[in-house]
Write a structure and sequence with these properties.
The complex is a heterodimer of chains A (688) and B (214).
Chain A: H1 43-68, H2 70-75, H3 78-97, H4 106-123, H5 127-132, H6 134-161, H7 173-183, H8 188-198, H9 202-232, H10 239-272, H11 281-298, H12 303-321, H13 324-352, H14 363-388, H15 398-406, H16 412-419, H17 429-458, H18 470-490, H19 495-514, H20 517-521, H21 525-543, H22 562-567, H23 570-575, H24 585-589, H25 594-614, H26 620-624, H27 645-651
Helix pairs in contact in A: 1-3, 1-13, 3-13, 4-11, 4-12, 4-13, 6-7, 6-9, 6-14, 7-9, 8-9, 8-17, 9-10, 9-12, 10-11, 10-12, 11-12, 11-13, 14-15, 14-17, 16-17, 18-21, 21-25
Chain B: H1 5-18, H2 22-36, E1 42-43, H3 59-67, H4 69-72, E2 82-83, H5 85-92, H6 104-122, E3 129-130, H7 132-143, H8 151-169, E4 182-183, H9 184-190
Antiparallel strand pairs in B: 1-2, 3-4
The chains are: A mainly alpha (688), B mainly alpha (214).
InterPro entries (chain B): CHP3, EF-hand-dom_pair, EF_Hand_1_Ca_BS, EF_hand_dom
Family (chain B): Belongs to the calcineurin regulatory subunit family. CHP subfamily.
Subcellular location (chain B): Cell projection, Lamellipodium; Cell projection, Ruffle membrane; Cytoplasm; Membrane
Chain lengths: 688, 214
C-alpha cells in the first residue's frame, strides 16, 4: 500500500545532543596504543532504543503529572493535555536544535503505534452489542464516510471555483476529493480517547466507535483510488477504473475481515493445545493478532478491519482455553500497550505540528474545511438516522444524533495519510498538511473539551455501571429463547432466529473444534457468571476478615488478629493456583492441571461454607436442602504461621462422602473415567 | 381473509383490540391456519409441527404460556385447552415493539405487561410468587441443553439467584426471617433500570404498528 515502509525508527538526532565517540580502534596503524579506557561514552550504540525509551518515559511522566490535579483532568480530556505538551516539547526541540527533529512518521504510526490500540478495542469489544447494532454501524461507516468524502471534496472545489481559496493552492477536483477522503474518516484513536472519559450510554458509544473502526476499509479504498487517479492524471481515467474502484471496496473490506477471521481461527486452535506450555499463551495472542495486521497490510487490505475481526472472533475461545493468569496477563498487557501507544501518538501530533517547513497556510481552505466537515457530518448523520430508524428496533433520537455528529473526531490517521502524499504529484500538499493539522487539533481540543459539558447539558443517557447479576443473566437467556420461539411460531426468520441458528452451529461444531475439551464441557454463560460471582463474593468476604468455614467449626489455626488473617487468609490460598487447601484427600492426590485443581479447591470451599455464615438463617428454604455435606469439625492444630498444604492434609476428615458434582474422582480410578459415572446422593424433599 | 364484508369488520375489530395493523393480522392469520391445519382453534399438539421449536430448551414453558389463562386474560389460573385466533393475537401482542412516542405512563404500562408475561412463565402454579422450586425448574430447563452440567449445579445456581433476588428486594434479613418467593412487585424491582423494551420484542413483518398497548 501507499503506507510505504519508511524508516522504522525515529530520525536520529544528528546535531545537538550527540557527543563525540571517544573510542578509537586499538592497534590502528600509526597511533599510540591508548591504554585501558576506564570509562567510555558510547552514545551512538544505544541511541535509537534509548530515545524510544526516553520518549515513552516522558509521556508516562506527563500522564502522572496530569493526574495529580483532579480538577484539571475532570475538565480537560487527557488527549488535549498530551497534544499541548507535544506542542511545548516540539517548540523546545525546535529552539534547541534549530530544526524539527521528531515527527509522527507514518511508517512507525501504521506499523507500531496503531495496531495495539485497534487490537485492544477489538478484543474487548462487547460483541453482543456490536452485532446487535451492526446495521447502523455499517451504514454510518460506509455510506456516511462516502458521503462525507464526496461532499467535502466537492464543496472545497466549489470554494476554489468561487475564488475563496487562493490560486496558489494548485488543486483540481481530484485533489480535493483525495483530501476529502482522508479528512472525512472518523478516527478510532481520538474517539476512544475522548469518549471513554465521557461515559455515554453503550449503544451510542458502540455506534460511533464501531463506525470509526469499520470506516477504515472505505478510507483505504478511497485514498488509494483517488491517489492513483491523481497519478494517472484525470484525463486518463476511464469508466472501468471507476468500476474497479467500487469493486476494490468490497475486496478490501471483505478481504480484511476474512484475514482477521482466519487468524482468529488459528489463534483459537493453537490455544487449545497450550495446556503444558502456559507461559507462551499471552505471546501467542499478541503475535497472531499482529500477524493478522501485517498480513492484511501486506495484501493492501484493510488492516484495522482484520485486527478487529481477529479480536472479536477469537475472544470467546481463547478466554476459555487459556489459564487464569494468562488471561490477566493478556488483559493488562494489551491495556498498557494501547494506552502507551495512544499517549505517544498524541504527543507526537503536538510535536509534528511545530515543524513549519512542512506546511503552508491558506485561510480560505482551512476555514472552509472546518465548516464543511462539521456541517456535512451533521447532515449525513441526520439523513442516515432517519433511514435507519425505519428499521431499527430501538430508534435513535435527536439527542443521540447530536452526540453522534459532534463526536465525529478526526485524528492521527488523517495526519499520517496526508503526510504520505507525494508532493510532486500533488502540489498542494503543504496546504493540505496545514489544514489537516488545524482540523485534528480543533476536533481533539475544542470538541474534546466541550463534549463533556454538552453531554451533561443535553442529559444524554449515561452508561450505568451494572454489576453483573445472576438474575439478569438468567433472564437474558430466557428472553433469547422466548424470542427465538416466538419467531419460530410466527414463521418469521428474524434476527433472533439467525442468532439462535448461529449459536447452535457454534455449539456443535466450532466450539468442539476450538475449545479445550475440559473447557468445552462446562461451557455455559450462566455457569460462567455464577462462577465469577462466587469468586468475587468469596474474595471480598474473606478480605473483610470473615472466616470461611467458620460455621462448620473449621477455622484457620491460631489467627488472633485481623492482619494475620489477611496474610495467610484463604484469599491467598485461593489466589495461588493449586495451593493445597482442600477437604478432599483424593483431589490432592490425582494429578490435575493447575486450573482444574484451583477450580475444585474453590468450589469445595465455597460450597462447603460460604453462603451459610453470610446469610445466616436468611433462606430457610435453601438451608433445608443443602446438597453438600458440611465438613466434619476438625481438631485445631496449634501451630501458627502459614496454612500450608501439609497442615490441611492432616486435618482433613477421613474420606468425606462424595456429594460434590465437581471434578472429584473416586480414589483409584483412572483419570480417564468420565466423571459422570458416579451419582450424587439423593437430596431430601424440599419443604418451604 | 377474503374480501367478504364481515371478514374486514372482524379485522378492524381485532385491530382495535390487539393493536396490530391489518396487514400483520392477515399475515398472522395465514400462519395460524397453517399451524392449526385449517381448524378454527389450536391445541398444544399443533405446536409439535414447528420443527425449530424442538431445539428450544424451554419449549414446554413457552407452549404452556400460549394456553395460560392469565395471559389470555380469561382467569387467574389454569390452562385453556385450545385457543382461537383472537387469543393467538392476544399472546402475540405482548411482543410488539413499544412505541416510544407514547407518554411515559403508557410506556410504563406496556413495560409492566411484558414483565407480567415473563412472570407468569416462571410462576407455574399461579400462586403469585416465584418459589425456589419453580426457579430451580427454570434454571434446570435452561441448562438442559448442555448435558455436561449436573443437576446439582443448576440447583446451586438457582439458589444463588434466589438469594440475590432476596437481597435486592428485601435487603438485610433477620436471622429467622424466611423469604417465601419473588412476588410480582419484587420482580419489577429486579428489573428496575433495565430496558426490557429493547429486549422483548419481535419484529413482525410490516413495520407500521398502531400505538396501542393493553
Amino acid at each position: 500500500m501507499l503506507r510505504a515502509a519508511l524508516p522504522l525508527l525515529w530520525l536520529p538526532l544528528a546535531g545537538a545532543g550527540a557527543t563525540e565517540e571517544p573510542t578509537q580502534e586499538p592497534g590502528s596503524p600509526g597511533e599510540p596504543p591508548p591504554g585501558l579506557a576506564l570509562f567510555r561514552w558510547q552514545w551512538h550504540e544505544v541511541e535509537a532504543p534509548y530515545l524510544v525509551a526516553l520518549w515513552i518515559l516522558v509521556a508516562s511522566l506527563a500522564k502522572i503529572v496530569f493526574h495529580l490535579s483532579r480538577k484539571v483532568t475532570s475538565l480537560v480530556p487527557e488527549s488535549c493535555l498530551l497534544i499541548l505538551l507535544g506542542l511545548v516539547l516540539g517548540g523546545i526541540v525546535l529552539a534547541v536544535a534549530k530544526k524539527a527533529e521528531y515527527q509522527l512518521e507514518p511508517g512507525t504510526f501504521f506499523l507500531f503505534l496503531l495496531p495495539p490500540i485497534v487490537l485492544d478495542s477489538g478484543y474487548f469489544m462487547p460483541s453482543r452489542l456490536f452485532f446487535d447494532n451492526l446495521g447502523a454501524i455499517l451504514t454510518y461507516a460506509v455510506v456516511g464516510t462516502l458521503w462525507n468524502a464526496f461532499t467535502t471534496g466537492a464543496a472545497l472545489w466549489g470554494l476554489q471555483q468561487a475564488g475563496l481559496v487562493a490560486p496558489r493552492v494548485q488543486a483540481g477536483l481530484l485533489d480535493f476529493l483525495l483530501f476529502g477522503s482522508l479528512i472525512s474518516a472518523v478516527d478510532p484513536v481520538a474517539v476512544l480517547a475522548v469518549f471513554e472519559e465521557v461515559h455515554v450510554n453503550e449503544t451510542l458509544f458502540i455506534i460511533v466507535f464501531g463506525e470509526s473502526l469499520l470506516n477504515d476499509a472505505v478510507t483505504v479504498v478511497l485514498y488509494k483510488v483517488c491517489n492513483s487517479f491523481v497519478e494517472m492524471g484525470s484525463a486518463n481515467v476511464q469508466a472501468t477504473d471507476y468500476l474497479k474502484g467500487v469493486a476494490s471496496l468490497f475486496v478490501v473490506s471483505l478481504g480484511g475481515a476474512a484475514v482477521g477471521l482466519v487468524f482468529a481461527f488459528l489463534l483459537a486452535l493453537t490455544t487449545r493445545f497450550t495446556k503444558r506450555v502456559r507461559i507462551i499463551e499471552p505471546l501467542l495472542v499478541f503475535l497472531l493478532a499482529y500477524a493478522a495486521y501485517l498480513t492484511a497490510e501486506m495484501a493492501s487490505l484493510s488492516a484495522i478491519l482484520a485486527v478487529t475481526m481477529c479480536g472479536l472472533g477469537c475472544k470467546k475461545y481463547v478466554e476459555a482455553n487459556i489459564s487464569h493468569k494468562s488471561r490477566t496477563a493478556v488483559k493488562y498487557t494489551m491495556k498498557t500497550l494501547a494506552s502507551c501507544a495512544e499517549t505517544i501518538i498524541f504527543m507526537l501530533l503536538g510535536i509534528s505540528a511545530v515543524d513549519s517547513s512542512k506546511w503552508a497556510w491558506d485561510s480560505g481552505l482551512v476555514l472552509g474545511t472546518l465548516f464543511f466537515i462539521l456541517f456535512f457530518r451533521a447532515l449525513g448523520v441526520v439523513l442516515q438516522t432517519w433511514v435507519l430508524n425505519q428499521f431499527r428496533l430501538v430508534p435513535l433520537d435527536k439527542i443521540d444524533q447530536v452526540v453522534m455528529s459532534y463526536g465525529g473526531l478526526r485524528g492521527a490517521v488523517a495526519f499520517a495519510l496526508v503526510i504520505l502524499l507525494d508532493r510532486t504529484k500533488i502540489p498542494a500538499k503543504d496546504y493540505f498538511v496545514a489544514t489537516t493539522i488545524v482540523v485534528v487539533f480543533f476536533t481533539v481540543i475544542v470538541q474534546g473539551l466541550t463534549i463533556k459539558p454538552l453531554v451533561k447539558w443535553l442529559k444524554v443517557k449515561r452508561s450505568e455501571h451494572h454489576k453483573p447479576t445472576l438474575n439478569q443473566e438468567l433472564h437474558e437467556h430466557t428472553f433469547d429463547h422466548i424470542l427465538a420461539a416466538v419467531e419460530d411460531v410466527v414463521g418469521h426468520h428474524g434476527y433472533h432466529y439467525w442468532r439462535d441458528r448461529w449459536e447452535q452451529f457454534d455449539k456443535k461444531y466450532l466450539s468442539q473444534l476450538l475449545m479445550r475439551r475440559s473447557a468445552y464441557r462446562i461451557r455455559d454463560q450462566i455457569w460462567d457468571v455464577y462462577y465469577r460471582l462466587n469468586i468475587r463474593d468469596a474474595i471480598s468476604f474473606v478480605d473483610q476478615g470473615g472466616h470461611v468455614l467458620s460455621s462448620t467449626g473449621l477455622t484457620l489455626p491460631s489467627m488472633p488478629s485481623r492482619n494475620s488473617v489477611a496474610e495467610t487468609s484463604v484469599t491467598n490460598l485461593l489466589r495461588e493456583s493449586g495451593s493445597g487447601a482442600c477437604l478432599d484427600l483424593q483431589v490432592i492426590d490425582t494429578v490435575r492441571s493447575g486450573r482444574d485443581r484451583e477450580d475444585a479447591v474453590m468450589h469445595h470451599l465455597l460450597c462447603g461454607g460460604l453462603y451459610k455464615p453470610r446469610y445466616r438463617g436468611a433462606l430457610r428454604c435453601v438451608q433445608a436442602h443443602a446438597s453438600y455435606p458440611l465438613p466434619q469439625p476438625v481438631q485445631r492444630r496449634s501451630c501458627p504461621g502459614r496454612v500450608g498444604r501439609g497442615t490441611w492434609q492432616s486435618t482433613c476428615p477421613q474420606r468425606p462422602p462424595r456429594l460434590c458434582p465437581w471434578t472429584c474422582r473416586q480414589a483409584g480410578t483412572k483419570a480417564s473415567r468420565p466423571w459422570r459415572a458416579w451419582h450424587p446422593r439423593p437430596v431430601p424433599r424440599p419443604h418451604l | 381473509m377474503g374480501a367478504t364484508h364481515s371478514a374486514s369488520e372482524e379485522v378492524r375489530e381485532l385491530e382495535g383490540k390487539t393493536g396490530f395493523s391489518s396487514d400483520q393480522i392477515e399475515q398472522l392469520h395465514r400462519r395460524f391456519k397453517h399451524l392449526s391445519g385449517d381448524q378454527p382453534t389450536i391445541r398444544k399438539e399443533n405446536f409439535n409441527n414447528i420443527p425449530d421449536l424442538e431445539l428450544n430448551p424451554i419449549r414446554s414453558k413457552i407452549v404452556r404460556a400460549f394456553f395460560d389463562n392469565r395471559n389470555l386474560r380469561k382467569g387467574p389460573s389454569g390452562l385453556a385447552d385450545e385457543i382461537n385466533f383472537e387469543d393467538f393475537l392476544t399472546i402475540m401482542s405482548y411482543f410488539r415493539p413499544i412505541d416510544t412516542t407514547m407518554d411515559e405512563e403508557r410506556v410504563q404500562l406496556c413495560r409492566k405487561e411484558k414483565l407480567r408475561f415473563l412472570f407468569h412463565m416462571y410462576d407455574s402454579d399461579s400462586d403469585g410468587r416465584i418459589t425456589l422450586e419453580e426457579y430451580r425448574n427454570v434454571v434446570e430447563e435452561l441448562l438442559s441443553g448442555n448435558p455436561h452440567i449436573e443437576k446439582g449445579s443448576a440447583r446451586s445456581i438457582a439458589d444463588g439467584a434466589m438469594m440475590e433476588a432476596a437481597s435486592v428486594c428485601v435487603g438485610r434479613m433477620e436471622p429467622d426471617q424466611v423469604y417465601e418467593g419473588i412476588t410480582f412487585d419484587d420482580f419489577l424491582k429486579i428489573w428496575q433500570g433495565i430496558d426490557i423494551e429493547t429486549k422483548m420484542h419481535v419484529r413482525f413483518l410490516n413495520m407500521e404498528t398502531i400505538a396501542l398497548c393493553h
